[in-house]
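Appendix C: a fully annotated inverse folding record. The material below is reproduced so that readers can follow the format used throughout the book. The structure is listed first as tokens, followed by the designed sequence.
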């Protein structure tokens, strides 16, 4: 069979010649007409595009949206027919505007997505239509409460602005939106940076005399407003008021009355009312609320539900419940009217929650439940259950923070219903409360995924504390009634869910980076970016201390750009590497049974505290038991904690020694009775080790200094022969949370060398100063610190760096290669900024901020300095200490101090500690040995005071370290053996002679 071409010619040769010629003629004519047809198509396309543009030219923004929509739809058909994609994208962007005016927000969002898709596919990301589309999309993401998505869009716009050289006017607007979105996800520090950058940019434009000059000043009023709102969130009241009044004053200077300026006036008045309500200054709050309503009535501004909500809350404070409910109804009506076509408008749900809270206060429980449920209906998609027992699935919830408040409100309502009758607990509502608490607490990890700064995580922990407090109380009540341990396990999980979350998240993120199969280049890029940010923050802190305003502005802009870059980089990692995203955000649930089975032996008890609003809950876990006690917070407890802490942190004096002794023994025993006596009654007698997870101010208490009994003798003597310290019965270790016990095990021998010790040199020693404390600009020399490090080196192989060698540079370059890091030096705690805690070397200091960017391989860090375990106390999160920086850097265990320690006593205790550690004792047992040895050798009644020995505590992993004694030790033993052999030989020879 021939080829298709040959077959064709064979068949055509059989046709009449005339037919063949006609066929060839038709083919020739067709070929000639192809360009003419194409040209005609181009002409038709151009005509369609012109017709479309002609229709767009007829759009009149003063007309009703419906008329304009009709014109734009016709133009859209023309542009689609012409495949004129810029026109198509512009039509969709116009439709966004008209749908927004109609308050059809869902339709507006759909149009913005279509515009983005068309522009991205056919025009590229640098086309103006793409910028318009993504800006519109960000606005609707923001409006719906999808703040992380909105932030991603705004950050992309900021990057495109830089690439395209966009005008400063647009740049300022972009950063205004970035700042507002940062605030919504709780990143207040980042919000202030972005808003300040927007304000600085607008300020640079004040000299502009063009038509945009007035517009620029009007936009500045919005920035002042948003800064005021942000400082309200951070509770910096004075700054908040200053910015609100700055906005109002500038509006007065401008003197224009427009929809925009009146809206800003209204918002300033409303937030001033909110501020004064928070401060319980009711007259001022009512004044500004009424002023806001006057502006609303006169100019018909947007969001007028706010002023009614404030008035209602003022009514509640003034004990006028009827007026309050009336104003809540007005607020609901106003919010509903403002968003008639957008049922997920956040203000509706919040207003329902406000009214429900008021009804709950009035003990109108059923009505409160109904309003909480209505709030859930308006903050969720495809959820229609009016039964308060029902909740939407997490994926149905749009505004998770609002939903958390609503579900927690239902839980509180059921809990109060259960306890409404003092003589009896209603079991059915109590079980309902428990189910609601379960649903509410499941939302918190999902909310935390949207949180991008430690500051925001700390704030979330404070907000969540009350919820977990109520949930524990509910579970405890159910256990008391039903005697079912499942409720104790649940209560323990609630307590754990708000412990050191920021630290756990950071460790989890670091772990995800290492095991998620990310390319080394990306891991390195992330590390370099984090370090650059840390360096910039450090330099910024230095400049702020020097008040170098011109340099500060430039460095702030650089810092903001670096943070944006980091956010975009994280977005890329999470999208491109799903395993990294999964590991980073997986919810780590602490199962008490796992703690019991894997981390507790027959000799160990875990005691965990949860500091609630009215009670302190004490969980006690042994290998096969769990118990829960609650003690009331009272003045007696507070007094004992304050007095004992004060006495421990000050060197004891021989003056009024009897009174000193009496005060200590009274309060040390009282605290033992309150905090430990009852829990320890129920544990087996085999237990001799205790792991304590403290909470709140208990984190500053060395429990081993508590007294199990009052002294039998009236003689004032702090030695253990006279006092029964808890230290003598238990080796005590501490942990920031039980969850940290479940952290992935470290690879063996991550660092090869055993020991690295630092003992810097400082100024001349003063006879009156023997503490390793921070004294601002004067750091006194620590003679015993160098002896301390030399003595430790006798027990352990390694390197010791003294005086000039004990430098910051040597620490940074060498620290990651050692299993044990020992710092005998000064430390300084910054109560206002935990990232600015310092540990000093001979040449300069190392900040906690630097530590958070380091990767250390040490299994133990010993911080033989002052206050290394103290710092700012954040409710729920714990103490933001210098030690946390080392744990964040990868050290699973630390020895830290709880006050300013004595130089030479510290050296003595550390020598005892390492002697026991080398002897294969666990870290907590080694520290117990060190303290007991010191006490046994105390020269007098005063030197045994716990100030000298109780400051150092062990936190984290307490397991023993596999350590070999130093070569020096082996040389000593070999020499002794050789000497003995020589002596024996000499004695034998002498006897023979």
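Designed amino acids, in order:
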């Amino acid at each position: 069979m021939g080829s298709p071409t040959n077959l064709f010619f064979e068949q055509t040769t059989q046709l009449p010649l005339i037919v063949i010629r006609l066929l060839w003629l038709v083919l020739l004519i067709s070929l000639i007409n192809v360009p003419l047809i194409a040209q005609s198509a181009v002409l038709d396309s151009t005509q369609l595009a012109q017709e479309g543009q002609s229709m767009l030219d007829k759009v009149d923004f003063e007309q009703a949206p419906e008329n304009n929509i009709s014109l734009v739809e016709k133009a859209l058909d023309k542009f689609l027919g012409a495949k004129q994609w810029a026109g198509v994208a512009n039509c969709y962007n116009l439709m966004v505007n008209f749908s927004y005016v109609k308050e059809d927000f869902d339709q507006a969002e759909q149009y913005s997505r279509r515009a983005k898709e068309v522009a991205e596919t056919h025009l590229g990301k640098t086309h103006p239509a793409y910028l318009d589309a993504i800006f519109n999309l960000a606005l609707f993401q923001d409006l719906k409460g999808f703040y992380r998505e909105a932030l991603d869009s705004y950050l992309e716009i900021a990057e495109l602005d830089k690439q395209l050289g966009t005008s400063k006017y647009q740049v300022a607007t972009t950063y205004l939106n970035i700042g507002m979105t940062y605030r919504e996800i709780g990143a207040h520090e980042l919000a202030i940076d972005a808003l300040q950058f927007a304000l600085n940019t607008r300020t640079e434009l004040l000299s502009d005399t063009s038509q945009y000059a007035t517009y620029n000043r009007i936009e500045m009023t919005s920035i002042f407003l948003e800064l005021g709102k942000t400082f309200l969130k951070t509770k910096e009241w004075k700054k908040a008021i200053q910015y609100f009044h700055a906005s109002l004053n500038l509006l007065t200077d401008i003197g224009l009355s427009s929809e925009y300026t009146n809206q800003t006036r209204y918002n300033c008045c409303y937030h001033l009312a909110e501020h004064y309500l928070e401060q319980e200054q009711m007259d001022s709050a009512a004044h500004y609320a009424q002023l806001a309503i006057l502006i609303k009535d006169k100019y018909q501004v947007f969001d007028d539900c706010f002023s009614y909500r404030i008035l209602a809350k003022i009514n509640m404070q003034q004990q006028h419940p009827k007026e309050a409910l009336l104003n809540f109804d007005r607020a609901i009506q106003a919010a509903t009217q403002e968003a008639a076509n957008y049922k997920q408008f956040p203000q509706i749900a919040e207003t329902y929650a406000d009214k429900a809270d008021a009804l709950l206060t009035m003990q109108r429980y059923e009505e409160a439940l109904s309003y909480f449920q209505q709030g859930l209906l308006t903050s969720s998609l495809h959820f229609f259950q009016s039964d308060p027992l029902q909740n939407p699935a997490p994926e149905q919830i749009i505004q998770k923070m609002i939903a958390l408040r609503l579900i927690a409100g239902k839980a509180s309502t059921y809990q109060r219903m259960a306890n409404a009758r003092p003589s009896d607990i209603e079991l059915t509502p109590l079980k309902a409360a428990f189910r609601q608490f379960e649903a509410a607490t499941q939302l918190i990890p999902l909310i935390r995924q949207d949180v991008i700064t430690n500051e925001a995580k700390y704030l979330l922990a404070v907000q969540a504390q009350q919820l977990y407090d109520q949930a524990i109380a509910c579970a405890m009540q159910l256990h008391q009634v039903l005697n079912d341990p499942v409720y104790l396990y649940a209560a323990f999980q609630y307590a754990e869910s708000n412990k050191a979350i920021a630290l756990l998240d950071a460790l989890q993120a670091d772990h995800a980076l290492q095991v998620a199969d990310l390319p080394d280049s990306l891991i390195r890029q992330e590390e370099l970016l984090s370090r650059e940010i840390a360096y910039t923050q450090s330099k910024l802190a230095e400049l702020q201390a020097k008040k170098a305003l011109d340099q500060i502005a430039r460095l702030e802009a650089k810092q903001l750009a670096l943070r944006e870059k980091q956010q975009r980089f994280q977005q890329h990692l999470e999208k491109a590497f799903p395993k990294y995203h999964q590991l980073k955000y997986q919810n780590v649930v602490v199962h008490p049974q796992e703690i019991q089975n894997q981390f507790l032996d027959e000799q160990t008890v875990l005691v965990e505290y949860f500091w609630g609003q009215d009670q302190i809950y004490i969980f006690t876990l042994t290998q096969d038991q769990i118990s829960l006690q609650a003690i009331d917070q009272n003045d007696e407890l507070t007094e004992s904690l304050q007095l004992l802490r004060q006495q421990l942190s000050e060197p004891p004096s021989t003056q009024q020694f009897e009174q000193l002794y009496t005060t200590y023994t009274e309060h040390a025993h009282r605290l033992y009775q309150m905090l430990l006596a009852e829990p320890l009654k129920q544990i087996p007698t085999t237990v001799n080790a205790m792991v304590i997870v403290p909470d709140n101010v208990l984190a500053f208490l060395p429990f081993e200094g508590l007294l199990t009994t009052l002294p039998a003798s009236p003689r004032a003597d702090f030695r253990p022969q006279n006092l029964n310290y808890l230290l003598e019965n238990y080796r005590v270790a501490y942990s920031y949370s039980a969850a940290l016990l479940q952290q992935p095990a470290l690879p063996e021998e991550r660092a090869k060398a055993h020991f690295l010790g630092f003992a810097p040199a400082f100024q001349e020693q003063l006879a009156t100063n023997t503490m390793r404390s921070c004294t601002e600009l004067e750091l006194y020399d620590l003679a015993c610190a160098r002896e301390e490090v030399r003595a430790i080196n006798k027990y352990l192989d390694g390197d010791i760096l003294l005086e000039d060698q004990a430098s910051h540079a040597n620490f940074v370059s060498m620290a990651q290669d050692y299993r044990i890091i020992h710092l005998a030096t000064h430390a300084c705690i910054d109560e206002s900024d935990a990232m600015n805690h310092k540990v000093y070397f001979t040449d300069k200091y190392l900040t906690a901020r630097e530590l958070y960017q380091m990767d250390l391989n040490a299994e133990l860090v010993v911080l033989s300095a002052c206050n290394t375990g103290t710092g700012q106390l954040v409710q729920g999160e714990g103490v933001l200490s210098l030690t946390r920086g080392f744990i964040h850097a990868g050290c699973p265990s630390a020895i830290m101090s709880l006050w300013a320690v004595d130089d030479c006593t510290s050296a003595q205790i550390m020598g005892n500690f390492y002697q026991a550690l080398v002897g294969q004792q666990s870290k907590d047992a080694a520290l117990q040995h060190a303290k007991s040895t010191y006490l046994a050798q105390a020269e007098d009644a005063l030197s045994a005071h716990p100030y000298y020995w109780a400051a150092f505590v062990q936190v984290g992993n307490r397991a023993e370290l596999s350590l070999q004694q130093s070569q020096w030790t082996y040389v000593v033993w070999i020499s002794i053996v050789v000497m003995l052999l020589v002596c024996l030989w000499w004695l034998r020879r002498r006897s023979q002679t």
